[in-house]
Structure prediction request, 574 residues.
Amino acid sequence: MIIKQVSVFLENKSGRLNEVTQILGDSGINISAFTIADTSDFGILRLIVSNPDKACEILKQNRFSVKTTDVVLAKTSNQPGSLSKLLKILSEGGSFIEYMYAFSMEQDSATIVIRPASIQKCVEILQNHKNDFLFHEGDFLL
Amino acid sequence: MIWNEKIECASRDEMAAIQSERLITTVKRIYHNIPSYRAKMQEKGILPGDIKSVENLKDLPFTNKTDLRDNYPFGMFTVPMSEIVRLHASSGTTGKPTVVGYTRNDLQMWAEVVTRSLCMAGIHKNDIVQVAYGYGLFTGGLGLHYGTENLGATVIPISGGNTKKQIQLMQDFGSTAIACTPSYALYLAEAMQEIGVDPESLKLRVGIFGAEPWSENMRKEIEAKLKIKAIDIYGLSEIVGPGVSCECVHQKGMHVNEDHFIPEIIDPETLQPVDPGVIGELVFSTITKEGIPIIRYRTRDLTRLIYDTCKCGRTLVRMEKCMGRSDDMLIIRGVNVFPSQIESVLLEMSETEPHYLLIVEREGTLDILKLMVEVQEQFFSDEIKELEALRKKIRNNIQSTLGISVDVKLVEPKTIERTAGKAKRVIDNRKI
Prediction:
């Protein structure tokens, strides 16, 4: 499935990350997963949250540079080799990955967040191999 | 030694007479050849005939750097191109350089004033002068070069950079004098220390430094580290290049070659001349130049003039070390940088907004220019490579427009201070 990821531009200043999490917490927005990409001067905080549009609006009000980006979620079984299997399929199908990260909310499965060069292509490849994977059904964030 | 004693030690009256005669000729020349300046004179209701002596100089309109830009490249020349034998250029305010042209006589005059300057610094024909200013469009290298030849001293035209070779030639050729920027002089001293060359073992005894602002403290540092006498030379390409004025060995202000360039000090707000000895903006009128004579050019440098006779015997008026600028121009590694240039580069880029802050630092002996630019919604990307590409693009655009490398730092929106009045765009942390 495709969902909206929230990206926040952060200068490398102490306390900045906490400001974001506090604002989201105070607004009742839950963070399911996040990752930080860093350079020497700045970082990009990428978040999967319960209400991306609201999160985006609130952070903008607080003068953060925020953007929502579509990402693909794929669910794999939580066992050795399953990530490799997923990547092999994407690579053979010619889907380039800009970045990815993963989280696990259940014992037997893991969720992979993928930002591919082409969303459409990535989804197509995954659909074609639907039978190889256990895809999440219904609303992702329960 | 005084190169041209008759001029350099002339009485104030004699100097005024020389200046008056030459000013009258120059004003006529400009009025009849440069439409833009003629229009300015007509607007003020002044005709060339109204200029009867140097006393009338204050009635004439000013020339600004923008006038040179508006008439780019050759619009301010008063002779046909067939008479111009050389061009020089310096960085301009919007990417276009300021171009100056020299006739054969202009080059001769320039060599003369540089020779006088070298003599003021105590250099004579037995000296070996290493010219480590850049050779090229910049006036530093060639200016010092021909002045040294004219004096009859030996010139080593090594140009800028190549520090190891500079030091090697000092050792092998026995250079007794060096001409470069003061920051490069300090850099040379450090390099010598690193490779284990004792300045005492060299024959170097005097340095002629200019093209960027430097303080008395920096002078002390250079003199102590290189074991030489550090002399300040002043010039700007719009007037002639180095040699407009220079210190003598007493180091009490720079003697202006005022039989060629008349200095005035004005209040930068009211534009009226100030009383003698008061600090204000330095204004120059060239009175012998043929290629591009300029009347009342506003240098934006702040200083004061001293009219007393110097201990060296010269009567030429002295100007103190420049104490700052009346505009926001920065001199970074010898390159003139206006914050407005940075702003126009940012404005030309669709991804950026012109909210920025320039921070100048001196790391070791080198000036570092840092540019902080706000990340705005429209160009914020989720991907690092996009942001890095943007940073690189800003850096490249500035490099190609200003000819200077800048360290670009992307910052969060609205973090650069906004002020109701004139925005604070520059923080200069250099201790010079």
In short: Residues 5-327 of chain B form a domain with the Rossmann fold fold (CATH 3.40.50.12780).
